[in-house]
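For the sake of transparency, this paper describes our internal protein records without simplification. The tokens are whole numbers drawn from a learned vocabulary of local backbone shapes. One such record is reproduced below, unchanged from the form in which we store it.

. . .
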Amino acid sequence: MTVVAQNHYSFSQRSANYTEMTNGTVVSPSEWDDFETAIAMPFPFKVFGKSVDSIIIADDGCYFWEDGDDYLSPSGADAVSRGADQSPVTYRVDGTGNERILKVQWPNISFYEIVDSFPNDFANYQVWYYEGSNIIEFHIGSSFIGEGALAEIDIFPFINDEDGVKGIVLDGDPASATPNYDIDNATGLTKNPSVNTIYVFTPGFPNGTANAAFETQVSLYPNPVGNQLNIHTDLEVEGIEIYNFSGQLIHAETSIGNDQTVNTTALSSGLYLIKIETSAGVITKRFVK
């Protein structure tokens, strides 16, 4: 079996207060429909396992200039501004050291299909890119998209690679969205997500795909963990990284061998991601302390 490290994503969602971003760099025209602006990535980042050094911020999402058009959109719809200087798309880099986050914000936007017939409907989105972990998050702010407007637009949040082969489209109830890895047969969300919803895309091998068999070759125990996390696998473990759920790298080590143990005494209570590099590829799992 051939496995490419980080060429897929697992999906999860959580809730946290949405904070409108201020003091960002504006990349959109005063009034916009279609636009795109290229910026340099402020830190090393990988998308579908490929290193990228620049990003295109566009009206309805972002894509990556180098190595093709790996693309993502927090709405999947044709976004437009709600008037001159009413919807400035901005970006900002927060954090220091090796724990920075690139944040892109689409504030007070509408959509091409409804902007004239439903002038009061609006949406707010952000996309966050985490240094080190390569996690991508969609943050949902306050919005109002009525039933009449929903009849004219479809909400299809998604990420996909340049060939359209690997990706995730979010389907169903946005309060408990279902990741659909069969992107050609996605149905989209039934409505716009509620404020404070966060959709998290973590590099690694997701359940329900052809790589699920690979995932079963690595197990963690106990979970929840006490002072020691055990990693069991018949594969050769080459490296281990642990991230908190904000995407900050908090532990890294190089390991050669099969079964491994990690001292977790210093970890505080919470949810963590562990990235395990093996001889067959990289897998990301979650554990609780």
Summary: The domain at 217-288 is CATH 2.60.40.3080 (Immunoglobulin-like). The mean pLDDT is 87. The chain has two domains: 9-203, 217-288. Residues 147-150 form the longest helix (4 residues).
